[in-house]
């Protein structure tokens, strides 16, 4: 939940006058996303989201994110379409913030996905990968292998206060990943943050993928690994093989994995678990006093790492032979 | 802004299954209201607000508030309509809270109303008073004359820390109000909290009156006085006579004030200013540490009281002869 920036009527009117989206009938701050300020906007032309980018999104990255969403939406992917203003640009400013208007997508983020949801998610992920293939821009993944040692450096001294032995476990895992990290995998646009809150469903169909603000250029199979981590573990920490099977089968029905990708899947799962463990650990150790947002538990991903270290091949994630 | 209670998908589905409002397409917590938790709800049948009542609304008062909104909406007033569930009741429970679904109203709350807005507001207020006349229930005003001395008792000892002389000024004003408070004025349902955030406009037309959770049975002209206080002062504390004229003319075009009401208007303005000064003062002196919501300034209403003490008759508020 977050509405960080209040927009006055005058500012909103001035901003909307630069668009061709009809007369505003209603707007309300919505409690969604922790990075940005979002307003639900109802006009005579339809429903939209007005997003004001707060400090955590780098303004220099916005042309990539917005261009990508327009590219994907135009390819028919269910993702928000940034609306161009009368100058033909999606990006404007309101209340001192970079701001966009995107189309509103119906659908509900499921907190406890079923195998059916996982299957649909797998298919949508593969569609995203295919639809992004001819997108012209690229953006390196700022939170991949090279970032992990520096990230860990911010937390290493205090890591054992979170869990005994965490520092040593992480050092060893980072050394392993440094050696074993795969190269030359099929690469393109990945979402890189496709957690359950970023996927809308109507019934068991995916109606929307949102929040492209970690999207970047990296191995497709790394995105699959992120989703296995985010969608296929139960709350007690166990891996649900049925959900893994559904997710991978859903993905492969649209874009079959190569032999190299299949072989790399266990190490990619370890790497993506490491990425979320580390960013959560740094956040956990740096909660400002009086913070509203409860940090996410880094140990959830430490436990997932433990699971992945015992996986020998992709079949243990549910990949059909 | 406030989303106090998180509703799980399962709870929401279970709750909505008791209504006949179609399939849910989307729901989002909205940052609106400081008393309750509100979700914007989009279904195959339309748009709604799901409200969960938090502790500050007394559950025993809900049948009055909900019955009143249904009565007013059925009379054609632009106010939210609480939707009955399949048992024919508007009130249910979700996530342990009393909860209702009300129809969504388009419109925008103006932060700086013009005289045109004030005129439309006056008309809408009079329509509310007329539409409420045959509503069968009543509810005494718990924040009128008899409540002010006890309220002041909670703040008296510290009042001068907020502004020098405030305690003495307030004691004298309370003594005056006790003597001068009018009796026998035309009485009925009043909104009692019709500040600018509770009135939606599309253009300069009123499209909705919301937030009936202070509604009660009291003098109609007291509601007019509340609105003069809330709508016709400028941010620098000056009274805008043009706005007062517009508000009173708008009201009288629908429901002319009686001679007795006109005579009482200055003392009613003093009383309603006292009511908001006192509740704000108590809140101001009792801000919990780490509170999110900035309390409203009691001195704004102390200054309005000062203005009203120098008013001799209703013409000084803009009443046309």
Helix and strand topology:
Two copies of one chain form a homodimer.
Chain A: H1 9-16, E1 24-30, E2 36-43, E3 46-53, H2 62-74, E4 92-94, E5 97-103, E6 108-109, H3 115-131, H4 145-153, H5 156-162, H6 166-180, E7 187-190, E8 199-202, E9 205-209, E10 216-219, H7 220-231, H8 241-254, H9 259-285, H10 298-309
Antiparallel strand pairs in A: 1-2, 2-3, 3-5, 4-5, 6-8, 7-10, 8-9
Helix pairs in contact in A: 3-7, 3-8, 4-6, 4-9, 6-9, 7-8, 7-9, 9-10
Per DSSP, the total helix count of chain A is 10
**CATH class category label of the largest domain in chain A:** Alpha Beta
Radius of gyration of chain A: 20 Å
Oligomer: homodimer
Helix content of chain A: 40-55%
Order of helices and strands of chain A: HEEEHEEEHHHHEEEEHHHH
What do these coordinates show?
The structure is a homodimer of 321-residue chains. Chain A is an alpha+beta fold. In chain A, 42% of the residues lie in helices and 16% in strands. Chain A contains 10 helices and 10 strands. Chain A has helices at 9-16, 62-74, 115-131, 145-153, 156-162, 166-180, 220-231, 241-254, 259-285, 298-309, and strands at 24-30, 36-43, 46-53, 92-94, 97-103, 108-109, 187-190, 199-202, 205-209, 216-219. At the A-B interface, β1 of A face β1 of B. Chains A, B: Keywords: Amino-acid biosynthesis, ATP-binding, Kinase, Nucleotide-binding, Threonine biosynthesis, Transferase. Chains A, B: Belongs to the pseudomonas-type ThrB family. Chains A, B: Residues 27-257 form the Aminoglycoside phosphotransferase domain. Chains A, B: It is an enzyme of class 2 (transferase).
């Amino acid at each position: 939940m977050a509405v960080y920036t209040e927009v006055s009527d005058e500012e909103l009117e001035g901003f909307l006058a630069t668009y061709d989206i009809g007369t505003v009938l209603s707007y309300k701050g919505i409690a969604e996303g922790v990075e940005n300020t979002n307003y639900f906007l109802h006009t005579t032309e339809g429903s939209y989201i007005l997003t004001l980018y707060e400090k955590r999104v780098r303004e220099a990255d916005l042309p990539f994110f917005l261009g990508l969403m327009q590219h994907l939406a135009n390819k028919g992917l269910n993702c928000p379409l940034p609306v161009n203003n009368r100058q033909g640009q999606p990006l404007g400013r309101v209340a001192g913030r970079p701001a966009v208007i995107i189309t509103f997508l119906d659908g509900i983020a499921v907190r406890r996905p079923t195998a059916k949801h996982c299957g649909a998610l797998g298919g949508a992920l593969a569609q995203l990968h295919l639809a992004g293939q001819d997108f012209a821009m690229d953006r390196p993944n700022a939170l991949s292998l090279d970032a992990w040692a520096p990230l860990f450096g911010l937390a290493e001294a205090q890591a054992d206060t979170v869990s005994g032995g965490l520092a040593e476990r992480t050092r060893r895992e980072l050394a392993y990943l440094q050696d074993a990290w795969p190269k030359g995998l099929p690469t393109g646009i990945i979402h890189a943050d496709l957690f359950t809150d970023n996927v809308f469903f109507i019934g068991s169909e995916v109606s929307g993928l949102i929040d492209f603000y970690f999207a970047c250029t990296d191995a497709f199979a790394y995105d699959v690994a992120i989703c296995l981590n985010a969608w296929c573990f139960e709350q007690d920490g166990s891996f649900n093989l049925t959900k893994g099977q559904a997710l991978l089968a859903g993905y492969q029905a649209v874009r079959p994995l190569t032999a190299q990708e299949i072989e790399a899947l266990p190490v990619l799962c370890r790497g993506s678990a490491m990425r979320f463990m580390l960013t959560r650990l740094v956040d956990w150790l740096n909660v400002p006093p009086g913070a509203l947002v409860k940090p996410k538990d880094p140990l959830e991903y430490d436990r997932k790492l433990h699971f992945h270290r015992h996986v020998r091949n992709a079949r243990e994630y549910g990949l059909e032979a």
